[in-house]
Amino acid sequence: MLAPVQPAAGAIVPAADSLRERVVLVTGATGGLGRASALAAAASGATVVLLGRKVRPLEALYDEIERLGGAAPAIYPMDLAGATPKDHADLAAAVERECGRLDGIVHAAAHFDSLQPFEQQAPDEWNRNLQVNVTAPFLLTRACMPLLRRAPDAALVFVFDDGARVGNAYWGGYGVSKFALQGLASIVHEETESSTVRTHALLPGPMRTTLRRAAYYGEDTMARPDPGGAAQAVAWLLGAAAIGVRGKVLDLR
Questions:
Q1: Catalytic residue among 62, 76, 170, 174
Q2: Which of 25, 60, 108, 227 has the fewest CB atoms lying closer than 10 Å?
Q3: Mean pLDDT in residue range 217-237
Q4: Is there a catalytic annotation at residue 62?
């Protein structure tokens, strides 16, 4: 398994232009952490491929990145819940054709419906959790690995959840998928450890996100920090400065 590591005191901030000339693909790019990660990567100089379900929010994020002076991003609408292996292969081919390279993937997309007893969780909902949260990262990483291996330094960033929390009652398919994602990231690390492809994981603390609001009904989610701080850590992991923590879980809690 990937070993945990905690950052030194203070926020993790990527160096200016640390991702210049790099192409980074962010899944769930219009969600809480995905959107913030896309903005942070763009601010660090990356050309960002924005992957999400809906075109309009992707276009709005595209415009925001351009207004902030970032490199023109690319938009790729795709619903991970229904995407086939061919869809992922087509995405990898499109990135190669349009961008010429790929230097990183941020697996920020996540699906969570609600807390409920496992006996009441519909099989379709169970399958959707596993498809979006673990099967899609497998398919996307597999399809893009030839591109990543051609980069002089490439990074995969998986986003974990607190196992002590999601292993409890009522977390259902989401909790199971997050344990499975840890296994996938560990296997990918072991198989790429001697290559130029680095595997990282991020364990953020509670954030002001839609997923948090769905899971904690009575909580004032607005009192939680926005995902911007965690996104800075994501951008740092994508850059060469994080080589020393490859195969680690950066624990921000």
A1: 174
A2: 60
A3: 88
A4: no
